[in-house]
Write a structure and sequence with these properties.
Length: 257
């Protein structure tokens, strides 16, 4: 389906990342993008005004629509307000992102933590589809994002990458960026991940781990080396998860309002 086909019938998902902002309409029945994805570089600095302008440009490339928009934000989100900004401009802290983006786009907008969006998408459509119990989705990238989903219900803002593991912040020792920076072999990195995931096992006793992030495309090189009792599988939706999850959040929020 081309970008211009039937996009007005679908909620729109925007994945706001540190280097790029990408978006597309989403077919929630199919659990996939309903049109070609568009991407624009994240502005520097990524202030609310600058990001809003990029959103306007991105959405303008699609047919006019009143459908809800979901947006991932790399930070803690509480009722649409940004509470942390580890990897985005500090001016976001305390900002009502729902209101800012709704005003900029003149559409109903709902924001969600980026890892939470990916987690919901994997549970609804991806690697954890049909699984009950507690699913922990982690994204291994610059840091470690996490989503806790129990019987399909999200427990938001888990931020499990910030856990103290053996006296160190987990993501500063075991994120994929650390593997790259320190030149770790897959075996060396898997040993660190084993410690991390065993800690999550002790704390939460999950039924399933889903491992996402760009490095998940190389899951066969490190996932079998992680020694945990819990089933652990790679994410299925890859770089579409944030867009799909954001649109799903927006759609569900619209049904509640």
């Amino acid at each position: 389906m081309s970008r211009m086909e039937r996009a007005d019938e679908h909620p729109f998902g925007i994945d706001f990342g540190g280097t790029g902002i990408k978006g597309a309409p989403v077919d929630l029945a199919a659990g996939d993008l309903a049109g070609e994805k568009a991407k624009i570089d994240t502005p520097r600095p990524a202030t609310p005004a600058a990001v809003s302008a990029v959103f306007q440009e991105l959405v303008a490339g699609f047919p006019p629509s009143h459908a809800a928009v979901g947006v991932t934000v790399p930070g803690v989100m509480v009722h649409g307000v940004v509470r942390s900004a580890a990897n985005i401009d500090r001016s976001w802290v305390g900002a009502d992102a729902d209101a800012i983006f709704s005003e900029a786009l003149q559409r109903e907008v709902h924001v969600v933590n980026d890892a939470d969006a990916a987690g919901l998408a994997e549970v609804e459509y991806g690697a954890a589809r049909g699984r009950s119990g507690l699913v922990i989705v982690t994204t291994l990238g610059t840091g470690i994002g996490s989503a806790l989903v129990h019987d399909g219900v999200l427990v938001p803002n888990s931020e499990l990458g910030h856990l103290q593991v053996e006296g160190r912040v987990a993501e500063k020792h075991a994120a994929n960026s650390v593997r790259e920076r320190e030149g770790l072999s897959w075996e060396e990195w898997a040993a660190r991940l084993t410690v991390y995931y065993r800690t999550l096992e002790r704390l939460f006793t999950p039924d399933l781990f889903v491992v996402g992030g760009g490095v998940s495309k190389s899951a066969d090189k490190f996932l079998p080396l992680i020694e945990v009792e819990t089933e652990i599988v790679p994410a299925a939706l890859r770089n579409k998860a944030g867009i799909i999850g954001a649109a799903l959040v927006a759609s569900r929020a619209g049904l509640r309002s």
